Amino acid sequence: MQEMKPNKKPFIAYWLIALLIFAILNVLLYGNMAEKQAEEVGYNVFMEMIDGKQIGEASIQDNQILFTNKDGSKIYKTGIINDPDLYERLYKSGAVFGAEIVEQRNPFFYYILTFVVQVLLLFLIWRFISKRVMKHMGDSPDMMSFGTTGKSNARIYVKSDNGIKFKDVAGEEEAKDLLKEIVDYLHQPEKYTEIGAILPKGALLVGPPGTGKTLLARAVAGEANVPFFSISGSEFVQMFVGMGAAKVRDLFKQAKEKAPCIVFIDEIDAIGKRRDNLLSNNDEREQTLNQLLTEMDGFQGNTGVVILAATNRPDSLDAALLRPGRFDRRIPVELPDLQGRVDILKVHAKKVKISDNVDFSGIAKAAAGASGAQLANIINEAALRAVREGRRVVTQSDLMESVEVVIAGYQKKNKVLSNKEKLVVAYHEVGHALVAAKQTQSAPVQKITIIPRTSGALGYTMQVEDGEHFLMTKTEIENKIATFTGGRAAEELIFHEITTGASNDIEQATKLARAMISRFGMSEEFDMVALETVTNEYLGGDTSTACSAETQTRIDKMVVAVVAEQHKKAKEILQENIQKLHEISKFLYENETITGEAFMKILESPENTLLEKPEV
Ligand code: ADP
Ligand code: MG
Ligand code: ZN
Fold it and tell me: Domains in the chain, start-ordered, CATH in brackets?
């Protein structure tokens, strides 16, 4: 189900072509007919032509005479006159006579015929165009109507064989199971009504962007044997101000007529935002929302209209929308875990030519934290890279490089770091990794590179997958903060000078330290009191404070203390291992890249005490 409103422009072009064809056809057909129609002439003309031996054929009929000129290109007709020696004169003139000359007696009939032919042609062309438009829509399910249905802007899709199916959605098993049940219900409602079960009226897909919410809904459309209305929340509020509520009404009216069916509202937060009396009072949106609430109440559970909606901002939705009886089911669509990532990579790898020995789990590990959309993008970037390098199939190295491309941006070819900067970046990155390694006694990274990226990053560290991890201890958080400060600590230690390169680290460290105190209850002073609430779980996780100004001041002081303590710890760790810091940084500086294994090998080898900071 791509956006299915086809571009208007090609359409106009098609119609112009069609018109042209008709014009040509008309000229040909009518021109031809005019020729074949007999021209009415006087008997004297007939006689003159006989005398001038200009007649090719003649046919004397009961009430008229038809004749042609010598080469038969024109037909004439004239009336019958009592003319006894006509035959003799005709014979003498050399005309062939007695044969039947076909005159198109009934031009009206031919008009009808051409009309029918035109209508037929029109129909064929229309079929051709609509087939092509369908093709353009690629893997989308067939569509019952273009563009708008009524006023609601919803697009209807019906099941087709080439649409997206559940098998195209990798991972997300729980979400798929819940949706499968809904599809199954619509197929065989008896199975459920027999027991007395009522189908949930609505299900809300929630999760971070790019995790496949829209894709799942498309899969439902592809699997379900029922009409599928799809509309995006923003379409309700777009363009026609004041029409939102009417559009909702219209959509549900159509849905009820077509029941059993599924209505999918993508990005529902555009209309379903919590009604509040804060600054912006948006009447239009509230009316639309109210209408939606009313409509969802308006039909009983078993009418067969199921409403699916997707959002990545569930916390901003109006509570009334979420109460049972409206969206009673909330289907979390989370970022994929390792296995999920492997599966998603495999699904998308089917679309490109890929070499047989690719190790998907290695790539999935490297792409820790990537969403389904990013993984799809990784495969595509790898394919592009393979083409760029003149290869026919995608290889492991293409995929590995494109992981970095998708997560950190392209390598900047023209941005050359000065040697001094490169050295600083090398120490900075190794500083992070060394602090992490010393705290956990394991390889902290998969790979570090110090090639500038288009995203602005000067170096890139590929973290190791730390397995399924749902809880974090206080010590782990503290270690993480120490790791964030490790980059800056290395700069201070080696260069006695600090750079702007640590801005992102500072942000992350501060966030963690603040969360420890205000959300995780990890400070003695505030115990288990929530001082902050998260408002935007799936989109970066903004927080809003919920405490007095004095408390805030105290929190701020404690945050500073936590970060400073870890910063100090990081510096100590690096000081103790300063030889290793030199060694590893030198390696990275010279090679521009270091793998986790090489890192650990240097770290665990006996110390090379002669090493100093390389001169640049
Ligand atoms: P959102 O959750 O933001 O609606 P989409 O459904 O639009 O995300 O996903 C974007 C793209 O990412 C999909 O078209 C698909 O190519 C890819 N994708 C995301 N999740 C998955 C998945 N679980 N399996 C396969 N492809 C996925
Ligand atoms: Mg989406
Ligand atoms: Zn850093």
Answer: 38-103 (3.30.720.210), 155-332 (3.40.50.300), 338-408 (1.10.8.60), 419-604 (1.20.58.760)
Distance separating the N- and C-terminal Cα atoms of the chain = 57
Of 84, 357, 279, 305, nearest to 189 by C-alpha is: 305
**3-state secondary structure at position 371:** coil
Which range has highest mean pLDDT (102-116, 231-245, 514-528)?
514-528
pLDDT score recorded for residue 172: 84
Tokens of 504: 């992102």
pTM over cut 0.85:
no
User: pLDDT digit string (tens) for 1-15?
Assistant: 333 444 445 567 777
Confidence of residue 153 (pLDDT cuts 50, 70, 90): low
Residue 165 and residue 329 in contact, taking contact as beta carbons nearer than 8 Å: no
Q: Which residues hold their Cβ within 5 A of ligand 3, which is an ion?
A: 487, 505
Q: Is the pLDDT of residue 410 over 90?
A: no
* Least confident span in 112-121, 153-162, 273-282, 480-489: 153-162
Give the residue ranges of DSSP H helices in 447-534: 474-495, 503-518
What are the CA-CA distances from residue 387 to residues 252, 375, 401 (Å)? Answer: 48, 19, 14
Q: Which two tokens stand for residue 506?
A: 């500072």
Residue ranges around ligand 1 (CB below 6 Å): 169-172, 209-215, 310, 344, 347, 372-373, 376
d(CA 286, CA 302): 28
Q: Give me ligand 3 centre to Cα 487, in Å.
A: 5
| Euclidean distance between CA atoms 369 and 551, whole angstroms | 34
Which residue numbers are catalytic?
A: 429
Cα of 502 vs centre of ligand 2, distance in Å, is 34
Helix, strand or coil for residue 237? helix
Q: How far apart are CA 299 and CA 202, in angstroms?
A: 12
Question: What digits encode the pLDDT tens for the residues 524-552?
Answer: 888 888 888 877 777 777 778 888 999 99
Distance, CA 581 to ligand 3 centroid (Å)? 15
